[in-house]
Amino acid sequence: MNAQTSGPSPGARLRNAREARGLTIEAAAERLRLNAALVLAMEEDRLALHGAPVFARGHLRNYASLLGLPEDEILAAFGTSEVPEPSFLPAMDLRPKVRDHARWAWPIAAVLLAIAVVAAFWWWSARS
User: Fold this and answer.
1) Nearest in space to 58 (alpha carbons), one of 32, 90, 91, 29
2) Is 128 exposed, middle or buried (0-12, 13-18, 19+ CB in 10 A)?
3) What is the pLDDT of residues 24-48, one digit of tens each?
4) 82: which DSSP letter?
5) How many helices (H) and strands (E) does the chain have?
6) Domain coverage including residue 31
7) Are 55 and 35 in contact (CB under 8 A)?
8) Could you tell me the CATH number of the domain that includes residue 53?
9) Domain count of the fold of the chain
10) Is residue 87 part of a domain?
């Protein structure tokens, strides 16, 4: 990262602009068609996760444009010509959490079966 400015880091500027617009990381990632981990990496000034510098520059340009920030300033502040080689990108599970209803299936089935057996026995004994 380029240390020419004394203000907030470029990632902090992106984060502040995103929060000012009321966007979550997931919403920004959806609009940019990126993984949320990549958006978070930009906000944490970790461009190595984006791969080659050409991808990092493109993602930064698009993110700055989405947030209404001057694209050239953000690119210059990051010093994208010095992007390191890609590193490990942690997987983020963004699927909606589904409750596990299957664990209740057997106990409910057993109770219903017990009620059916009791009702059948009661019906049979009432007929006799």
Assistant:
1) 32
2) exposed
3) 999 999 999 998 988 998 888 887 7
4) G
5) 6, 0
6) 10-82
7) no
8) 1.10.260.40
9) 1
10) no
